[in-house]
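anyone seen this seq b4? input:
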Amino acid sequence: MKALVTGGGGFLGRYIVEKLLAAGADVQTLSRNPQPELIAMGVKTFCGDVGESDEVMKATAGVDTVFHVAAKVGIGGNHREFHQTNVVGTRNVINACRAQGARKLVFTSSPSVVFDGKPHEGIDETYPYPAKHTAFYPMTKAIAEREVLEANGPGLLTCSLRPHLVWGPRDTNLIPRLLARAKAGRLRIVGDGANLIDTVYVENAADAHLLAAQRLETGSKVAGSAYFISQGEPVNCWEFVNRILEKLGGKPVTKHIPYPVAYTIGGALEFIYGVLGRNDEPPMTRFLAQQLAMPHYFNITKAREELGYTPLVNTEEGLERLAKTFQA
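predicted toks r here
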């Protein structure tokens, strides 16, 4: 396999690159910033933005499989930036795959593409996209995922993976945010604290991507399909947060805020930030309040059966690896 990983210098992208190299693949990446560590591994690196079609076209030359991991993530910010990276960037990847003759495209999506503000308890991939999203990230990722799946055909085989709350060593998003908020005393249990959620250890998420590429063949069920990816064992949201904080030397979260209050504050802050033209993230949004208060876990039977996916690293082992890396 000769593969391109967009966002190969990021958290999940780096693990996908490493697993591809271990499997004997020829790998190149497209990232916004220089990647000297990847170069030292023998990876051909391109420095550019997926929102720029010329950069994507150059990086896609000569590859047969593309893992499109690059994305703009977040709970707030400027719609144009989300659209440029997540929608226009994905269109550039699709067009480059077709122009350069890449046969397979594995897209990294998110379960939030189907989040409709309601509890999600064991839903599967038949659950529909909502008519409206409460944040730019799920809105733009949903547009991108639909276009990736619609692009599936004889010349280009596509599929989409929806890993939920990816965590582990070298995390650059979830865990740093938790630690920063905990240290600042800004973490609150939203709602009654009983909500179950799905997560996925980063190496399991990376494994799922390689499995998807292997199974993505003409006539297979994988072509044109989306898959939820998780640990396969829902956890209590706030017990899990406190386990991470405990492992990393932080104080547990004990204070509560009612969900309606958090949701109202989130809506007010979104309005204020919009009026002021601020592009940074508010401390609370409606989407974040919903995610922190409601259950959201998924049925991964389809991934198990069609991708052959099994989470090889269980949650306890993942937490131990996280703690050891953090201590080191």
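The longest helix spans residues 79-100. The first strand starts at residue 2 and ends at 6. kinda curious what u guys think
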